[in-house]
Amino acid sequence: MTTIAAVHGVTFGGGLELALACDLIIADKMARFCFPRIKAGLIPGFGGIPRLKRDVGNAVVRDLLLTGRSFNANKAQQIGLVSQVTGEGEALRAARATAAQLKKFDRATAAAAKRFIKPIPQEELRREIDLFCELFASPAWRRDCGSLSRERMRSLICLRSS
Amino acid sequence: MQTAEQTLDEILNLAAAHFNVAREKLSPDDDFFKTLGVDSLQTLDLLTKLEKSFGVELPDYELQGVSDFRTLAGKIQARL
């Protein structure tokens, strides 16, 4: 199955991670993307970093993760994160048109093509979640957001292969 | 390259159009959060429009503490 993220508006943190987990991202021109977690003393913990590294150049990855800044849909397309940018409010329509196109083709052939898409290193996914849990259990984060233990956090995060 | 005044004027026009207020109600030293009654999410939309209109990229950390149009224009002008 090929998945498509139709994105509009503010797509920050978990929203961006969800979009990155899809095969295609189609964004409306007013969409804005960001990994702001560094501002809260965290990193993305749901596959965001490995997938970002898969899709964009390392200089951009460092910039986005270390500054926590947001960027617009055109920038997202320039850096290779987004495959299509549409007019405002048009992302879902474009995604449906793309899905209709995908439906025309043999599923096994599409699956074969997808096998060539750069896989996510499973060890990186595990390492990201470990680091996220460590940071989540840190005194600075706990001070702000309660006292979820590392074990409880791990149980809340369901790690699946991409 | 356009002047700072031209940039400021363009920003005021864009903000008026984007938030659907009369251009005459906006002045360069207005606090746009108060004058326009917008929140930070709404200003992100304006940021996207400004980036597109001026063909620049504005890291949002450069805009921390910026709340008036004149200062915003200076930030954009510096990237033209």
Descriptive report:
The complex is a heterodimer of chains A (162) and B (80). Helix content of chain A is 49%, strand content 13%. With 162 residues, chain A is α/β, with parallel strands linked by helices. Chain A has a domain at 4-116: 2-enoyl-CoA Hydratase, Chain A, domain 1, CATH 3.90.226.10. In chain A, the strands form two sheets. A three-stranded parallel β-sheet of chain A has the order 1-3-6. A three-stranded mixed β-sheet of chain A has the order 2-4-5. In chain A, helix 1 (14-20) packs across helix 2 (48-55) and helix 7 crosses helix 9 (150-156). In chain B, helix 1 packs across helix 4 (69-77). The mean pLDDT of chain B is 92. Chain B is 56% helix and 0% strand. Chain B is built from four helices and no strands. Chain B has a single domain (4-77), classed as ACP-like (Non-ribosomal Peptide Synthetase Peptidyl Carrier Protein, Chain A, Orthogonal Bundle). Chain B starts with a helix and ends with a helix. By secondary structure, chain B is mainly α. Classes of the chains: A alpha/beta (162), B mainly alpha (80). The A-B interface holds A 10, 29-30, 32, 67-75 and B 41, 44-45, 47-49, 51-52, 57, 59-61.
**CATH 4th-level superfamily of chain B:** ACP-like
**Describe the biggest sheet of chain B?**
none
- CATH H-level superfamily of the domain at 4-116 in chain A: 2-enoyl-CoA Hydratase, Chain A, domain 1
In total, the number of strands of chain A is 6
The CATH class of the domain at 4-116 in chain A = Alpha Beta
Give the percentage of residues in beta strands of chain A: 5-15%
**At CATH's second level, what is the architecture of chain B?**
Orthogonal Bundle
CATH architecture of the domain at 4-116 in chain A: Alpha-Beta Complex
The succession of helices and strands of chain A, N to C, reads EEHEEHHEHEHHHHH
Q: Level of helix content of chain B?
A: 55-70%
DSSP summary, beta strand count of chain B: 0
Helix content of chain A: 40-55%
Q: Number of DSSP helices of chain B? A: 4
Oligomer: heterodimer
Instruction: Report the portion of residues of chain B in β strands.
Output: under 5%
